[in-house]
Model the fold of this input.
Amino acid sequence: MSNNLTQFDHYITDDGPAALVVREHLIPVEGADGVVFPATFAEIGYNIDDDPNGENIALIDSVGSQSNRIEPMFAEDNYKQLVPQVVIKAGNKSVSLLEAGHRAGDAIVRCSALQQELQDAFKKLLDGDATPLAKIAPTSLVFGVWDSRDTQAKMPRLIASTIRAYNVRKLTRSAQYVPAAEYVKSGLLDEPTDKATSEEYSKRGFIHVPATSTHGGVIAKGGIRRDATLALAALRLVNAGDEEKAALKLRRYILGLALVAFTRLPGGYLRQGTILVLDPDKKAEFVEVYPNGKRKPASVTHEAALAYAKDAARDFGVGKDRTENFDVERAKQDIKGEGKPGGKSRKAK
Done:
């Protein structure tokens, strides 16, 4: 057995670190005082939490959003050999399992020829064997999965990453849409006589539309930080039934994928108006955190993680690539609560 394959075994053993933790200080590309645009949510807009001391924290990018940005990396040329490439064709669109919002528990794969295999894999997961799921959707074991619409099998995410801004000053912005021509004044269009017609004119760009005091971003007076955790304690929950050797191979494989994702420098683009890069004046923290609270510097490079992941994947045996079609009939059955193979209803009796 190569030393490369055993070099991170201390991350798998019970007396190893509870987690790897990264803290990176970020700044907008415009500079530390540049404006960034946090994520917006229905009804509340920006998620900004205040405390009695007058300070606040704005959520720039959530755990779920960060996961969805990171996971598709395993479809890129440098990484695609590490995981099975599973694609579902739905009409004219091809969707990689790596892009499905609920991963192996997503409707697009549940309503395909993979339905039975995934159900069996989730049942095995409930019995303490994650191997079948790792052969189909290993990143579901890295970024978390919940088969909420069938078996209820669940695995926690190993990687959690969040970006927050501290002590932010909230800004607003206003704009005015000016149509290319005065359609009503010129007699090209009739004057709208009711609210519904006026709204349609507005939507279609035929009249002036003011937009005042809308979200204008924030300035982070207290800086911006990405906090990321690789939960090694949760990795040790990944089992292969009672087979210790098989469990070791499986954990090394999942660890390899997790380390590759964890050590890759994330892309700077989050959304329009928000491009974040590392702050060159502030040192990032990368540590191993042990159950007794001790913190030791970690030194895993992305290159070392990738080399390890390739060896671990070869030793485990990566599942086969698959391309399946979205099954409309399965989807109809699923909507009726009859999505289980065999046509048995999942509705309460």
Notes: The radius of gyration is 25 Å. The longest helix spans residues 244-263. Confidence is low (pLDDT under 50) at residues 341-349. The chain has two domains: 3-167+221-335, 177-216.
